[in-house]
Amino acid sequence: MKVKYRRPRGTMDYLPDYLDRWSYIEEIWRTLTRTYGFREIRTPVFELTDLFVRGAGETSDIVSKEMYTFTDRGGRSISLRPEGTAAVARAYLENHLYTGPQPTKLFYVMPMFRYERPQAGRYRQHTQYGVEVIGSADPWTDAEVIHLTTVFYERLGIQEIEVHLNSVGDKQCRSHYNEILLNYLRSISEHLCTDCRNRMERNPLRVLDCKQQGCQSYLVQAPKMVDHLCLPCEEHFSKVRRYLEQFGITYIINPRLVRGLDYYTRTAFEVISKRLGAQDAIAGGGRYDRLLEVLGGNPTPAIGFGAGMERLIYALERHGIEVPQRQHLAVFVISVGEAARQEAEQIVTRLRAAGIASDLDHIASTKLKNQLTKAIRLGARYAAIIGDDELAQDTVVLRDLADASQESLARGSLVEVLRQRLDNSNLC
């Protein structure tokens, strides 16, 4: 069959088997974040373009290369949401969440859109999960967010990860460091890529984030931000490291870790999986104490992280971690004969009313073997079989499809028997 239409490049169809894994991961994510005191937030899929320009920065790859931007009928520049933090910060200010108990701890699972080259586990439409803690400058909060991140991956069974850590300072000490870094970059500019040469005069710190191997080989000797922190930033970074050690988290200080967005201050971190090749980060985040002020609010400390769900599912595959299979269908009701079919329809209706996942053969096949095959292919746990003999005796045959054992039950007891057998499972 020739398919007339295909999905756009950089997107994917989320099919049932894939979403089974997705749902399992998301349930763990939601349960874990709530145990840390987070509540869910969702923001619009599109926002005013200026929100991301002011938040992420004009020189960021997101703003300069990757946003899906259009002009609406009112003449406003609108962009599909490329990242979550700026939108959550806007919602925090607009909805006066600062009037409640602080800090405000929020988590999200939301689609994002970036026009970038598709890669393994990276798509132009993708879903990010993340957290934001707004209203706390405490270094313990930084460590708590990193701890939550590592615990999440541990619960999914990912063991071979590294936490990369850095401090990018604050406005005061970064200004001094930028001068030192810029002098160094000018001395090696002839060896840098075009993007880096364009960036270094406007935002020299961004050059350290370049992924080009040629640039990286010259950036190894670049001055380190951690060697030029002011006293308050140095003390903050020291406390973050101490808290991470108390949590039992091993970390690597990576002086070239600056993240890709302008709003970061002080703590920056990434979680690395060594099984993903060159693009090895599966989560990244940090502190952004200036963002709320840039967006028109009062100076407000904040920290968070974001990561891609599709990227995580790819990482699980690379780590050889199989997500437990979910059995969606508890009972497949099989009928043989027209009269039995009518009774089967009533049985399915009663089972569903009792909250028991059930279905029957919509093609109304009269062959028992065909219907049993379909029940097995659909992953049903049980088959409830009814024919002329069962109709006459007011019974139903309940077959366990796992071991092919079966028994005859009074038809009126079927719901209660299944409830008992399915108790504490996710099928009922």
Brief synopsis:
The chain has 16 helices and 16 strands. With 428 residues, the chain is of the alpha+beta class. Helix 5 packs parallel to helix 10.
Describe the structure.
The protein has 428 residues and is α+β, with helices and mostly antiparallel strands. It is built from 16 helices and 16 strands. The protein has helices at residues 16-35, 49-56, 61-66, 85-94, 139-155, 171-188, 194-200, 204-207, 213-219, 231-247, 291-294, 309-318, 338-353, 368-377, 388-393, 414-421, and strands at residues 39-40, 46-48, 69-71, 77-80, 104-113, 125-134, 161-167, 251-253, 265-273, 281-287, 302-308, 331-335, 358-360, 382-386, 395-400, 406-410. Strand 12 (331-335), helix 13 (338-353) and strand 13 form a beta-alpha-beta unit. Helix 5 packs parallel to helix 10. The model has no long low-confidence stretch (mean pLDDT 89).
Mean pLDDT, as a whole number? 89
Shape: elongated
Structural class, please? alpha+beta
The count of β-strands is: 16
Distance between the termini: 39 Å
Rg calculated over all Cα atoms: 28 Å
Largest sheet: 8 strands, mixed
**In which order are the strands of the major sheet placed?**
1-5-6-11-10-9-7-8
- Enumerate the spans where pLDDT stays under 50 for 5 or more consecutive residues: none
Helicity range of the residues? 25-40%
What is the percentage of strand-forming residues?
Answer: 15-25%
Q: Given the structure, what is the number of helices?
A: 16
